[in-house]
Design goal:
The complex is a heterodimer of chains A (148) and B (64).
Chain A lengths: L17 H23 L3 H4 L4 H20 L12 H11 L4 H8 L9 H28 L5
Chain B lengths: L10 H20 L3 H26 L5
The chains are: A mainly alpha (148), B mainly alpha (64).
Chain lengths: 148, 64
């Protein structure tokens, strides 16, 4: 049995109204602003969207990890890294946003990774940065209207 | 001020601290309803403990 297919008639696309297009661009810009704010100040991206619980938890979690990591004399990487691992560590540490400067301020006695505590501290700092980047991405997606 | 005196963790305490903080953060980011969050946090924390202690025991024969 053969089926006869109807001829395909191209349907002209409806023109997108200029107002809708500019609203979409504004929404996209707002989402990026939320993401950058969330990166610079942990939790701010969620706070701007009135997600108070998430904002508070992200701020406290990143803050606790940074303070613990720095006080355990973890390594706070700088831009003058010697190898790729230092650069990766620097990128991870930068993820903490403004808390990076707090960690640098607390690290006056220098890192001490000869003990396990210092090594754990380095991991805490890197985790804080990656966690904050994840939270900023989450805020970005929420600002774009994805279910969060 | 000497900031190095703020946190003095043993290995196990550092492990518990890390697991607790990350579990709470993941729970709040990943779930919306309070009940779901609590379940997620407890489950995540438990898995951190089980996997961490499991890996520690798996490495024990090679530790010396």
């Amino acid at each position: 049995m053969t089926e006869q297919s109807a001829p395909i008639v191209p349907v002209p696309e409806a023109p997108v109204p200029a107002r809708k297009e500019s609203a979409s661009a504004a929404s996209e810009n707002r989402a990026w602003a939320v993401a950058v704010a969330g990166w610079l100040v942990p939790g701010l991206g969620h706070a701007l969207q009135r997600m108070w619980g998430r904002a508070f938890v992200v701020f406290v979690a990143v803050g606790l990890l940074v303070i613990a990591g720095a006080s355990m004399r973890g390594n706070v990487f700088t831009s003058n890294g010697n190898d790729a691992f230092d650069t990766l560590g620097y990128i991870a540490d930068l993820g903490t946003g403004c808390f990076y400067f707090l960690a640098r301020f607390m690290e006056r006695t220098g890192a001490d990774v000869s003990h396990a505590g210092g090594d754990y501290g380095t991991r805490f700092l890197a985790t804080a940065g990656v966690l904050n980047l994840l939270a900023a991405l989450h805020a970005f997606e929420a600002a774009r209207g994805r279910k969060a | 001020m000497n900031y190095t005196s703020l946190f003095h963790f043993t290995h196990f305490q550092a492990f518990l601290f890390f697991a607790a903080v990350i579990s709470v953060a993941f729970g709040f980011l990943g779930r919306r309803q309070p009940k779901d969050r609590v379940k997620y946090i407890l489950w995540s924390f438990l898995l951190f403990l089980v996997v961490g202690i499991g890996i520690a025991w798996a490495m024990y024969p090679f530790s010396r």
